[in-house]
């Protein structure tokens, strides 16, 4: 690679066209003239494309993971095991030297994907109910990550964490089915995540009715959710009364048809009134 404008033009052209292979070829030709090349920009590009080889070369030549743009690119990148190995080596965001930083990334891995979560588990991550409770308060957890947790720890890890209630509140039928098939109680009562949301404990069905997620309601009913189960004090203390109180006519119809089908089948919900 030359020192002149022609070499830089080629490099920028490759970056602008997202031609990672060409960028790699040009960077690999660097010699003592590395100062004439925008290494940090290339590192950011490589990070955003999960191009570990180019990123590693840039770091060896003087680029830094502390750069705001590069660090942000890494944050939003698909972080596979090879990239995570490199980030750990260079202590990105303190993940190697700070236990709290490591634990924050562990929690975030529940939202990024099973490959990243598995990497952290293989590097000593400890996940308990408190980890899940904190994670549930933020962005949705990936179903594939929860599957990893169930296979590794069993469903008991997830009991009482509001993961089922959160899935129902968001209308996530895939997550609901995964948890119930794994053995979580469909009528599990769990306290709200904060006092600001009120007192009492909620079921997944109550959350789904409140947010009017009809598909989630149907799934929960199929798994035996109880429309009459009292979850709090007051007039709207059951899923059915909640629907009636807010005038959710379609949901009222769903719940009543479900109740009637159980009565015809020999099981009655009326005894719960």
Automatic annotation (TrEMBL):
Protein keywords: ANK repeat, Repeat
One Pfam match: Ank_2
Renumbered ranges of ANK repeats: 159-191
Recorded superkingdom: Eukaryota
Protein name: Uncharacterized protein
Natural source organism: Pseudocercospora fijiensis (strain CIRAD86) (Black leaf streak disease fungus)
